[in-house]
């Protein structure tokens, strides 16, 4: 295996990333749930899980950290 073949493990799941991509588009929890065909509770769970992984206390801190890490684009 070459060094160029190495892909670092993603911090967030695909779904968590989708949720945050919609969050930075100023979508509400309800709008995100409708767009992804999941419940609002599930949206909140994805946000909460991502915040735990990042070690932050709020959604805005999570967004800032994800932007800093290059996991999220505006």
Automatic annotation (TrEMBL):
Ranges for domain HTH luxR-type: 5-70
CDD domains referenced in this protein's UniProt entry, alphabetically: LuxR_C_like
Record-linked SMART domains: HTH_LUXR
UniProt keyword annotations, A-Z: DNA-binding, Transcription, Transcription regulation
Gene Ontology molecular function: any one: DNA binding
GO biological process: regulation of DNA-templated transcription
InterPro entries linked: Sig_transdc_resp-reg_C-effctor, Tscrpt_reg_LuxR_C, WH-like_DNA-bd_sf
PANTHER family, per database record: DNA-BINDING TRANSCRIPTIONAL ACTIVATOR DEVR_DOSR (PTHR44688)
Name of the protein: Transcriptional regulator
Taxonomic lineage from the root: Bacteria, Bacillati, Bacillota, Bacilli, Bacillales
